[in-house]
Specification:
Blueprint lengths: L2 H7 L1 H4 L1 H6 L6 H42 L4 H18 L1 H19 L7 H8 L2
Length: about 130
Amino acid sequence: MDIDLMKEYRKIDDNIMLRMNTTDTHSETSCKEFFKHLSEAYARREKAIDSCLKILDARLEKQQKIIEDDPYNSDVKNQIFVDETKRRMIANEYVVEDIVRERSLTVFKNKCRKFTIPEEFRRWLQRR
């Protein structure tokens, strides 16, 4: 996973106070538009994490098959260890996402009180 890509995707959350201060929070339309950008960023980040995990899972599956055929292949065993470590680190990004989302949504809800977060979005957040 490209760390710079995740940083770029998290910019909206990192700058939420500034963005909320420049958004007309008394306008439901402005809040709706900002929420749209926020939720799109969440979806992009989750898609990136999911994609990386799928790639690593496929790689680990291939490596396990190699080990079944050659249990003494130390190069593949070492690579499995490296890839399993990468997978754990990437999977941990879900925890980071939950924290970032909670922080951002708290700020958003406090500033855009007239806007109601759609129920489908709430369900999307809780599906994992």
